[in-house]
Amino acid sequence: MGEEVVLRGQIGPFWEQSTPPVIAPLLKLCVGGCLAMSLMLFFERLYMGIVILFLKLFARNPHNTYKWEPIQDDLELTHFVYPMVLVQIPMYNEREVYQLSIGAACGLSWPSDRIIIQVLDDSTDPSIKVWTFPVFCGFLMWVCDNLDKKNHQDQVELECKRWASKGINIKYEIRDSRNGYKAGALKEGMKHNYVKLCDYVAIFDADFQPEPDFLWRTIPFLTNNPEIALVQARWKFVNSDACLMTRMQEMSLDYHFTVEQEVGSATYGFFGFNGTAGVWRIAALKEAGGWKDRTTVEDMDLAVRASLKGWKFVYVGDLKVKNELPSTFKAYRYQQHRWSCGPANLFKKMVVEIMRNKKVSLWKKLYLIYSFFFVRKIVAHIVTFVFYCVVLPATVLVPEVSVPKWGAVYIPSMITLLNAVGTPRSFHLIFFWILFENVMSLHRTKATFIGLLEAGRVNEWVVTEKLGDALKTKLGSKAPWKPRFRFGERLHLLELCVGAYLFFCGCYDLNFGKNRYFIYLFLQSFAFFIAGVGYIGTLVPNS
């Protein structure tokens, strides 16, 4: 107790002198900005909630909004009444899942002479090898890596040949380099002569497994409604129960699909293409300028450009496609960096183009700029971290600055409840979801600023690691569990620093504060500490 009094006596005079003229006014300004952003986010969530309630009450769905009639056989034209469909599967080193995706695509129920399966395998490019070890070890690594990738290429090609022997029209395509990553692969795939025969293109990432009736349920929207460019299906997660982290992801993504995509489809005929589990009208894709690799969200880029040409999109929420969530913390961090950095960078590149566009209404422009981009892709990330992990804890140290209870408690609670409607089965996990989302907001905020400022990692593309059945196989064996990385390699300094800051603020509030924020601050600091030492997600056993 005596040491504490001495410490306060040493620091107190300096803190008391600097707080009123400098720190307090600056912190008040930050609080005001954060409260304004919180209100933006709250009213955006409230608006979407009201729209969803309206859609449910009046049973509005794509089938009674747009014309949908099944394609009927024609005795004279036989199968020529069916449009020609291209199915693209871009992949890169997808050893664990390539058989699942290729098998599901080849199992699509569609006349065999009216469908082409195109496997775009980027796993064979030797120019992307990274030498990270000393020369000798690096050389051995390079040789083994190339042999491994050649073996992987052979495996994928053999899988394609196996399906071709069964009468499936499947094409195995490779290219000389990975320029443009996924966008580059899709763009290159569209250049082949046989694609000219196709009317529509369905796209599935390597871990997606569409049901056999996928095309029967999506193509009629396109054939019966010439103004529709895209039909998007919902994602269904096969490994949502793998760990607590995948349950948290399921909650966030379910809200995205059941609310954000549904609202965009029902109100403005626009939403961001999810990059997979969707069918494009090839004419619309070409009119919009095709695939571009200027950002890490080539799917959203294409969707915005097509929308500015006047095309409409349809989201079919009752059509679900199985896929896999990233179950390791490292993979999820990389994915969230890409998903946060890309939209911010795209917003910077397209905001002027959206404002100058003559083909869409003023209301749609406002929706694109304010709701879709600014609030959901920028404000939502920034306010979560800056307000709840930086500014609010700082007010504990500056008693001259206070946050109104409606901003500190009521608004975030209501936003959280509105987010929870997407996954009722996980409602009891809502508290853990809040802590986890605040941890991830650190990376999303960082990525958002990188995208806006076009800093170093703005175009970084790391393919999300997929485990497929590998984890089950390894768990079934009796090999001991071992972390894939040494403990030192799993430390994340940013999370540890934020955790230490929150813990310090919590201790200060416990001893000297009056708002009792310390309960939240301690819990949130522990969440950052857990993430900081890498104990989130699945620990994959060594091979």
Automatic annotation (TrEMBL):
Superkingdom of the organism of origin: Eukaryota
Gene3D superfamilies: Spore Coat Polysaccharide Biosynthesis Protein SpsA, Chain A
Compartments where located: Golgi apparatus membrane
EC number: 2.4.1.32
Keywords attached to this entry: Cell wall biogenesis/degradation, Glycosyltransferase, Golgi apparatus, Membrane, Transferase, Transmembrane, Transmembrane helix
Catalysed reactions listed for this entry: GDP-mannose + (glucomannan)n = GDP + (glucomannan)n+1
MF terms in GO: glucomannan 4-beta-mannosyltransferase activity; mannan synthase activity
GO BP of this protein: cell wall organization
Ranges for domain Glycosyltransferase 2-like: 200-395
Topology in the lipid bilayer: Multi-pass membrane protein
Transmembrane residue ranges: 366-394, 414-436, 517-540
Function as written in the Swiss-Prot or TrEMBL entry: Probable mannan synthase which consists of a 4-beta-mannosyltransferase activity on mannan using GDP-mannose. The beta-1,4-mannan product is the backbone for galactomannan synthesis by galactomannan galactosyltransferase. Galactomannan is a noncellulosic polysaccharides of plant cell wall.
Family affiliation: Belongs to the glycosyltransferase 2 family. Plant cellulose synthase-like A subfamily.
Protein name: glucomannan 4-beta-mannosyltransferase
Organism of origin: Cucurbita maxima
Gene that this polypeptide is encoded by: LOC111489297
